[in-house]
C-alpha cells in the first residue's frame, strides 16, 4: 500500500505546489491521477520514487516511511514510464531494457532472457526488435519498450506519467488494452497520470482528481461520473467527454428557444411586423394561434414576404416554405449535422414526441452551441505542443 499523509510540497517556500495530499493506494490497484496542466500530478508521482521529497508530511510504502529508504533501493521496487519514453538513443532496445539489470550486475544471459520475455509480453518480436535502435521503431513501439524497461527488475509498483499522450488514438487504444491486461496478469500497483478523462475512465479502478495541489475527489470512475464532487469536475468531465462523443450531445441541449411563431391564417402584414419587432430572420408557422405547443407546418423567411408583395398574396399559409424538415428533441448532434448538410436547411424546428414545436436549431445557434463546448484554444495549443515534443 502507498500512503500519503498530509503531504505538502513547495520549491521556494512561498508557493505550495502540493497543499495537502492525503490518500491511500491499495496494493495491486490501478489509480489514475487526473487534472489540468500544472495541478501537481507529476510532483505527486515523483514523491513516490523520491525523485523529490515532501516539504512536510510523509509518504509510506507498505507502512514504511520512504524518507528512511535509500532512493536507489527504493527505485528498484518502482518502475517509471514517462511521456517521452526516455530511451537512450545510442543504445539498442535490448540494451535499453537491460539498463537497470546491468547496473544490478545481472549476468548477460539472465538480462537477455528477461529482455526477450518482456518484449514478448509487450507484443514485440524479440528476434526483430532486440537489436534495433529507438529511432528505427514507431512511437507506439518505443512506448512499449519504455514499459518493458520499467518492468525489467519486476517492480511491484509502476508509475506512468502521461505515457500515451503523444500516440495516435488507435495505437493508444491498443496499448491501453495491453497495460490493462498486464496489470491483471502481473498484479502490479499502477499509478497513471493523464489529462484525458476517457483514458482515466477506461484504465482507473479509482481516479484521483487534482486541482491546484489538492485532491478534489478520489473515487471509482462510475462514482465520479455520476456524482462529481464539484462543478469544476463536472465541467471537466462534461466538456471533455461531450466533445469526444457528439452522440451524447442532444438536440435539447443545443436548440434555441429564441423564435417566434405565426398562425397559418394570419395576414402577411403581421408577419412583417413580427420580423421587424423581434429582429429575426424567420417565423415558424403553426396550425393555431399561440402555437408554441402545436405542430410546425411551415417557415416564413424574408424572401417569402418579398414574394408575397410582388404577387399580391395576403395569407401566410399561401407563401410559407413547406419544404422543411423537423428534428426530434432527443436526437443528437450528429443527426443534426447530417440533416443540415443533406437538405441544406437554415432552420430546423425541434419537435417533441407528439410533434409539438419545442425549439429551433439554426446555423448560427449551432455554431454557438458547438463553440461553447469545444475545447478551449489553450487546450488545443497544448496538445499541439505535446505532439511536437516527440
Ligand atoms: N522543480 C520545480 N521548481 C519549481 N516549480 C516547479 C518545479 N517542478 C514543478 N513546478 C511547478 O509545480 C506545479 C505543478 O507541476 P507538475 O509538473 O506537478 O504539474 P502537472 O500536473 O504534472 O502538469 P502537466 O499536466 O503539465 O504535466 C507547476 O506550477 C510547476 O510549474
Ligand atoms: Mg506532469
TrEMBL record:
The residue ranges crossing the membrane are: none
Q: Does the keyword Nucleotide-binding apply?
A: yes
**Name of the protein described by the UniProt record:** Glycine betaine/L-proline transport ATP binding subunit
Q: Which organism is it from?
A: Cetobacterium somerae ATCC BAA-474
Per the UniProt entry, the signal peptide is none
> What NCBIfam families does this protein map onto?
proV
Q: Which residues belong to any copy of the ABC transporter domain?
A: 2-237
Q: Does the keyword Transport apply?
A: yes
Q: Name one GO cellular component term.
A: membrane
Q: Which PANTHER family match?
A: OSMOPROTECTANT IMPORT ATP-BINDING PROTEIN OSMV
Amino acid at each position: 500500500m502507498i500512503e500519503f499523509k498530509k503531504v505538502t510540497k513547495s520549491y521556494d517556500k512561498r508557493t505550495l505546489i502540493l497543499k495537502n495530499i492525503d490518500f491511500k493506494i491499495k496494493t495491486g490497484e490501478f489509480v489514475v491521477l487526473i487534472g489540468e496542466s500544472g495541478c501537481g500530478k507529476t510532483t505527486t508521482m515523483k514523491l513516490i520514487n523520491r525523485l523529490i521529497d515532501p516539504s512536510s508530511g510523509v509518504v509510506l510504502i507498505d507502512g514504511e516511511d520512504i524518507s528512511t529508504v535509500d532512493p536507489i533501493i527504493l527505485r528498484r521496487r518502482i518502475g517509471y514510464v514517462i511521456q517521452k519514453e526516455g530511451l537512450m538513443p545510442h543504445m539498442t532496445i535490448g540494451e535499453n531494457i537491460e539498463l537497470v539489470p546491468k547496473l544490478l550486475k545481472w549476468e548477460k544471459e539472465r538480462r537477455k532472457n528477461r529482455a526477450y520475455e518482456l518484449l514478448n509480453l509487450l507484443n514485440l518480436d524479440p528476434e526483430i526488435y532486440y537489436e534495433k535502435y529507438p529511432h528505427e521503431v514507431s512511437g507506439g513501439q518505443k512506448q512499449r519498450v519504455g514499459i518493458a524497461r520499467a518492468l525489467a527488475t519486476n517492480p511491484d509498483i509502476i508509475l506512468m506519467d502521461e505515457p500515451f499522450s503523444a500516440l495516435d488514438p488507435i495505437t493508444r487504444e491498443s496499448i491501453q488494452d495491453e497495460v490493462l491486461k498486464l496489470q491483471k496478469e502481473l498484479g502490479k500497483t499502477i499509478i497513471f497520470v493523464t489529462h484525458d478523462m476517457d483514458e482515466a475512465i477506461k484504465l482507473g479502478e479509482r481516479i484521483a482528481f487534482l486541482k491546484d495541489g489538492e485532491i478534489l475527489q478520489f473515487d471509482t470512475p462510475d462514482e465520479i461520473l455520476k456524482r462529481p464532487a464539484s462543478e469544476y469536475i463536472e465541467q471537466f468531465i462534461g466538456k471533455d467527454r461531450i466533445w469526444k462523443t457528439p452522440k451524447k450531445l442532444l438536440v435539447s441541449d443545443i436548440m434555441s428557444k429564441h423564435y417566434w411563431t405565426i398562425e397559418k391564417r394570419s395576414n402577411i402584414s403581421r408577419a412583417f411586423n413580427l420580423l421587424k419587432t423581434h429582429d429575426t430572420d424567420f417565423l415558424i408557422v403553426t396550425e393555431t394561434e399561440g402555437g408554441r405547443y402545436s405542430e410546425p407546418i411551415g417557415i416564413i423567411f424574408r424572401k417569402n414576404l418579398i414574394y408575397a408583395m410582388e404577387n399580391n398574396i395576403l395569407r401566410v399559409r399561401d407563401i410559407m416554405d413547406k419544404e422543411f424538415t423537423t428534428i426530434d428533441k432527443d436526437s443528437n448532434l450528429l443527426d443534426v449535422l447530417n440533416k443540415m448538410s443533406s437538405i441544406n436547411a437554415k432552420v430546423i424546428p425541434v419537435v417533441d414526441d407528439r410533434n409539438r414545436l419545442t425549439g429551433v436549431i439554426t446555423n448560427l445557434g449551432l455554431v454557438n452551441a458547438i463553440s461553447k463546448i469545444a475545447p478551449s484554444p489553450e487546450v488545443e495549443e497544448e496538445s499541439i505542443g505535446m505532439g511536437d515534443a516527440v
